[in-house]
């Protein structure tokens, strides 16, 4: 791994973890920011869930509904005598109901208030006393008229009857309501009666809360009237405390005062139904409430349980209050059922906002709470430590995607991953009631991607400038743009690639300084030459690795891939040779020296990469294949040829271009001989008939040469020169044959010619 890649990955990891830390810090400092949006995502999941539920209606919790039909039959609710409630409670008890919960606050007596009694005495008392005085039997009590009126009116109503029915049934629960306020001790005996002892740890938590007030606590509690409270099976608070946005998603199962806590009426009813004593209840904030071995309820740090909603409005059975009062429903129907007596009639309905509806009756919320507790089907939020691990993993995954892919591809990939995460979270909630966070993970993805994009922009702009400065004079603009768009092509640590390289050099250039006279003219000539040759290389998409005096090294196949690198290189070299002829014609007009350039071509695996110091680097290729290309350029001197290629290059283009075999060479620095060829043109049209005939004769002479038939070979090579007097290879082989006639090679001679110079 290159230093740059290591640095990029280190920065990416720091960014991913850093963004998670920032998101967590924002969550702590501005708790409502992410939680508000998360709650909305929670609501959306609920809408999807209850919208497609196939569950049967629930009947183990029933709602006796004070509905419009009941009001039509029985009159205004405010005028109902509590005898109605007494009869309903008695009827439900006869049917064997497990519990009857009144979702009605009985905080005032059904009897007339003292001020109303006094008002009646003031208005009618004197008339009643006067009438009593006129009747001899009642005259003795006439003076006691005020006491008689008070005794009669103060006991007017059905509280006693309701209380008696409640006591006899043993299954009725009445709610109290409270207002939240600063935590304070209470000596109220009603509160103490229903208190549950907390663990020392929780008590310490509540004592801390005493001054902070971030757990639900009773500021003022309003209890039912004594006659009902004393006869009730139980009581508890019945407030539905929504979240800050007004949605009822959870409920505190306990309220706290000092080291005591008080259950909700829903929880109290379920505990009684399950036979759990208050001594068996333990509370561990942030984890669970344990009710013996019957229930283990997940709660948050505030002691709140998430409410499981089992369906839309009327998922539970509703029965009209008037039907129960008039015994239209068999009492046996209520056997073992929990019955909630509440109102949905217009003007009486206790309407709430729930995750999936803006209008939902309070009694059915309580029904859902009790069903949640009875069935143990709890909504469970993923523990914070697991969510933290998830956030870190999401951050690191975002870093990997953002660094590995281009911005558009990274964006699409991240969008796909986010959608997959959302779908998974939705399915987990739908199937298992597991609440997996959506908003903070999304924030981590967005923020991490934004930071990485900024980081990439800054670093890649710097990288593009470096690429432009390095390559703009050595490659075509199109290739430079391609590399700038795909800088991963340049592996800083090096890469293995197959390339075709050429080396070029001007014959006898060292003597030009004397011919030209001044250094300025020499530099002008070489610049003109290199400019013309470089233009051709860039035109064919080659990379100019270096200039060395008049020499050029260029290759194809790196840094950009070119599957036809050998063909492209050959075409380029031939075009350079043609361009040189045009240049020579122009130089001749200016009395400048004629230029003859020799080229050596080779194909093979090389190491490519950026080489140099920290201050200056250049992209180049290294390896034996590069060295062989350089040796072949020099080998042209031996044969007086212009373009020589190795057998490795020839293998890539065999049959495509006219060539002739030159020799089997062992160049300086190489043990293995290499068969070399001369490029004659790009097509038969580039080779004259005279040249084709000369090459044909030459190849026959070469066969004789390799079988040591020196005289016969000499005859053919001389015949070649008769056709083409300038044929360099034939001249060379005539000399070798003459030498071997004098000093024959060894018996095991393999025809290899060993180069003595580079």
Automatic annotation (TrEMBL):
TPR repeats lie at residues 694-727. CDD domains: CHD. Residues 500-633 form the Guanylate cyclase domain. The keyword Transmembrane helix applies. Gene3D superfamilies: Nucleotide cyclase, Tetratricopeptide repeat domain. The chain crosses the membrane at residues 12-34, 382-401, 408-429, 441-458. This is Adenylate/guanylate cyclase domain-containing protein. It comes from candidate division TA06 bacterium. The lineage of its organism: Bacteria, Bacteria division TA06.
């Amino acid at each position: 791994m290159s230093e740059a890649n290591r640095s990029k990955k280190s920065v990416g990891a720091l960014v991913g973890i850093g963004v998670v830390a920032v998101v967590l810090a924002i969550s702590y400092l501005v708790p409502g920011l992410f939680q508000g949006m998360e709650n909305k995502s929670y609501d959306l999941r609920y809408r999807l869930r209850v919208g497609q539920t196939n569950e049967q209606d629930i009947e183990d919790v029933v709602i006796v509904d004070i509905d419009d039909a009941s009001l039509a039959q029985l009159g205004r609710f405010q005028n109902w005598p509590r005898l109605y409630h007494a009869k309903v409670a008695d009827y439900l008890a006869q049917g064997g109901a497990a519990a009857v919960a009144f979702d009605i606050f009985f905080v005032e007596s059904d009897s007339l208030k003292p001020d109303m009694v006094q008002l009646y005495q003031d208005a009618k008392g004197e008339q009643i006393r006067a009438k009593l005085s006129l009747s001899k039997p009642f005259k003795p009590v006439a003076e006691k008229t005020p006491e008689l009126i008070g005794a009669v009116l103060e006991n007017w109503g059905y509280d006693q009857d309701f209380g008696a029915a409640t006591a006899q049934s043993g299954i009725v629960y009445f709610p109290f309501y409270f207002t939240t306020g600063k935590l304070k001790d209470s000596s109220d005996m009603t509160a103490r009666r229903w208190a549950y002892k907390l663990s020392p740890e929780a008590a310490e938590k509540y004592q801390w809360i005493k001054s902070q007030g971030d757990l639900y606590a009773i500021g003022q509690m309003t209890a039912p009237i004594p006659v009902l409270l004393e006869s009730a099976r139980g009581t508890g608070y019945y407030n539905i405390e929504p979240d800050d946005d007004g949605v009822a998603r959870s409920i505190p199962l306990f309220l706290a005062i000092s080291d005591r806590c008080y259950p909700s009426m829903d929880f109290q009813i379920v505990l009684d139904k399950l036979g759990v004593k208050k001594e068996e209840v333990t509370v561990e904030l942030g984890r669970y409430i344990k009710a013996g071995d019957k229930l283990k309820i997940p709660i948050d740090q505030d002691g709140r349980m998430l409410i499981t909603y089992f369906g839309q409005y009327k998922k539970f059975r509703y029965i009209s209050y008037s039907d129960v009062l008039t015994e239209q429903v068999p009492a046996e129907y209520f056997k073992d059922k929990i019955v909630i007596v509440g109102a949905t009639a217009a003007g009486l309905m206790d309407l709430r906002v729930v995750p999936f509806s803006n209008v939902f009756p309070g009694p059915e919320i309580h029904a859902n709470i009790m069903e949640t507790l009875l069935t143990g089907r709890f909504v469970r939020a993923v523990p914070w430590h697991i969510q933290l691990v998830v956030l870190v993993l999401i951050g690191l995954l975002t870093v990997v995607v953002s660094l590995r892919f281009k911005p558009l591809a990274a964006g699409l990939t991240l969008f796909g991953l986010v959608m997959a995460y959302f779908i998974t979270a939705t399915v987990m909630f739908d199937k298992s009631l597991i609440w997996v966070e959506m908003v903070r993970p999304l924030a981590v993805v967005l923020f991490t991607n934004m930071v990485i994009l900024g980081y990439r922009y800054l670093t890649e702009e710097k990288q593009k400038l470096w690429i432009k400065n390095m390559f703009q004079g050595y490659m075509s603009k199109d290739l430079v743009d391609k590399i700038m768009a795909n800088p991963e092509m340049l592996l800083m640590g090096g890469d293995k690639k197959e390339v075709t390289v050429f080396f070029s050099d001007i014959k006898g250039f060292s003597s030009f300084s004397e011919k030209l006279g001044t250094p300025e003219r020499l530099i002008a000539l070489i610049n003109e030459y290199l400019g013309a040759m470089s233009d051709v290389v860039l035109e064919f998409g080659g990379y100019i690795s270096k200039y060395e005096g008049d020499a050029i090294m260029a290759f194809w196949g790196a840094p950009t891939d070119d599957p036809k690198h050998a063909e492209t290189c050959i075409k380029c070299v031939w075009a350079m040779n043609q361009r040189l002829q045009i240049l020579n014609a122009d130089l001749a007009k200016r009395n400048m020296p004629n230029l003859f350039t020799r080229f050596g071509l080779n194909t093979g695996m090389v190491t490519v990469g950026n080489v140099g110091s920290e201050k200056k680097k250049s992209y180049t290729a290294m390896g034996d294949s590069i060295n062989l290309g350089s040796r072949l350029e020099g080998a042209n001197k031996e044969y007086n040829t212009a373009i020589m290629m190795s057998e490795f290059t020839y293998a890539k283009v065999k049959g495509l271009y006219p060539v002739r075999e030159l020799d089997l060479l062992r160049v300086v620095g190489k043990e293995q001989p290499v068969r070399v060829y001369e490029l004659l043109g790009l097509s038969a049209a580039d080779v004259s008939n005279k040249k084709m005939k000369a090459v044909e004769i030459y190849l026959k002479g070469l066969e004789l040469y390799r079988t040591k038939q020196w005289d016969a070979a000499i005859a053919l090579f001389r015949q070649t020169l008769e056709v083409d007097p300038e044929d360099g290879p034939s001249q060379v082989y005539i000399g070798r044959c003459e030498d071997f006639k004098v000093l024959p090679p060894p018996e095991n001679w393999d025809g290899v010619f060993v180069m003595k110079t580079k």
